[in-house]
User: Fold this.
Amino acid sequence: MTLRLLGVALVLGGCAAGADVAGLATQEEALRLRSDVTALQRSVLQARTQTEALSVERAREQSAQVDRQTQTLSQRIDRLTATLTALTSRVDELSVRVETLGHQARPAPPRPFPPAAPPPAPPPPALSATPRPSPAAPAAPARPAPATAAPASPPPRPTAIPAPSVARPATGAPQPQDIYQAAYIDFSKGSYTLAIDGFREFLRRYPEHPQANSAQYWIGEGHVALAQQYANTGQADRVTEALQRAVQEFRKVVANYPRGDRTPTALYKEALTLIELKQTALAQARLQYLVDNFPQAEETPLARERLAALRQR
Assistant:
């Protein structure tokens, strides 16, 4: 019995020792697992940090590449715009030259207009006196009558001669100077729309008059003055339109009256108006055209100064 009890005790002791050993092994494995999990968590965090850093770098590189591409495209657009502006100014200059040459080649046909303009002049003294009596007396008797009727008719004839000279201004069109002066008075009073209409009427009636180029010039000045009025009254949307009309009217002075005394002034004022419209390249072209073609004009020194200032910008 004693031996059996000892055997059982030994067995129980061995089991207890085994259990202690197993318990220690389990704790070590748990600690190892915990350390492994911690290491994995750290590696995951490191991987996330690296991934985020890579994504940020890639985003920066992509944005920098997009910026570079955008800058390149904008530079190309600027170059194309400058080329287009230069071509436009060249086309405008060539069109002005073509119009100038066409106008210089046209003077021969227009010359008939000056004789046609003085239709009031044909009815002077002797010519207008003969047609009036001829309808009153038949054409056949008029020739035999001079011997007998001449003594009786002279008294009425002298009175009939002044009559046409008095009736001429009443029945004929208004005198050119009257229309021009009325339009200029409207301009000086600030009635720019009326002035523009008056100068247009003057050009319609007397396109070959010596003051026609001045009338065309004042139409351009009228639109510039209207633009100033619109700016003062806060009508900004109408300012640009008025300035563009002014450019067109100034250009007509150069095209229609290339040798007129107002042509250099019109070129200079056109350039100033183009500067107001932010069309600097075209303004430089017009100023250069003025300097090259009108070296003796009063506006030429001013044009040179403007060119120098524009090129320094």
About this structure: The CA atoms of residues 46 and 187 lie 83 Å apart. Residues 103-171 have pLDDT under 50 and may be disordered. The longest helix spans residues 2-105.
